[in-house]
Amino acid sequence: MHIPRYYRKPGWQRFLVGIFFGGLISYWVVLFMYGTMYERLLEENSKIQEKLNDAENKILALEKDKEDLNEKSKQKITIEEIDLVILNAKDLKIDKLLLHQLEGLVKEEIDDIIGRNIESIADSDSLLFSSIENKTFKVDDFTYYFEIERLIISPTVRIVVNAKLSN
Q1: Where are the beta strands (DSSP E) in 1-155?
Q2: CA-to-CA distance for 137 and 148, rounded, in angstroms?
Q3: 149 near 88, Cβ under 8 Å?
Q4: For the segment 24-82, what is each residue's pLDDT rounded down to a tens digit?
Q5: What is residue 8's DSSP assignment?
Q6: Alpha-carbon dihedral angle through residues 114, 120, 125, 130, given to the nearest 10 degrees
Q7: What's the DSSP call for residue 115?
Q8: C-beta of residue 146 within 8 angstroms of C-beta of residue 128
Q9: What is the CA 105 to chain-centroid distance, rounded?
Q10: φ/ψ (deg, to 5) at 84
Q11: Cβ proximity of 139 and 104 under 8 Å
Q12: DSSP state for residue 148 in the 8-state scheme
């Protein structure tokens, strides 16, 4: 049996060259499609990875913040500052210098509460009342005493008082 020589016939030559170039073109098309698909997937993967890293960093920061808040909540809150307001300073015609001196005297009377726990001061607020109301403060030939209108105990103790002149 004899196999005919198809490679010498021009029809078969064109057919075989067409198969060869078609195979090359289809290989390049598949390679291009695979490359663009893979590039898109890598880009999407990197975006997702970046979002995941951001989320993990946020979680770590929030956990650290939570631990810090837990530690702070275990610590007792202390009094840091005393704020005194004299309501009727204008009615008694107290000038700013005298007002400053009176505030200084009252703050000096109760300055030992700075640095103490708020709970202990809240429990003994009657002592705070009595230490301010039962004491007279003398400034420039005038003697003043105070009645507490409002007492707010927080890290900044706010005391609102009415000043009265002694006879």
Answers
A1: 81-86, 136-139, 142-152
A2: 14
A3: no
A4: 999 999 999 999 999 999 999 999 999 999 999 999 999 999 998 888 777 778 888 88
A5: G
A6: -70
A7: T
A8: no
A9: 38
A10: -115, 130
A11: no
A12: E
Contact 159, 147 (CB under 8 A): no
Q: Whole-angstrom Cα distance, residue 161 to residue 152?
A: 12
CA angle 36, 37, 43 (to 5 degrees): 85
The per-residue pLDDT for 7 is 61
**Separation between Cα atoms, residue 135 and residue 143, nearest integer Å:** 10
Write out the two tokens for 22: 């078609």
Q: How far is CA 163 from CA 17, 54, 114, 115, in A?
A: 112, 58, 23, 27
Q: Could you tell me the sign of the dihedral formed by the alpha carbons of 28, 29, 30, 31, in that order? A: positive
Neighbour count for residue 12 (Cβ, 10 Å): 13
Q: Count CB atoms within 10 A of the CB of residue 158.
A: 14
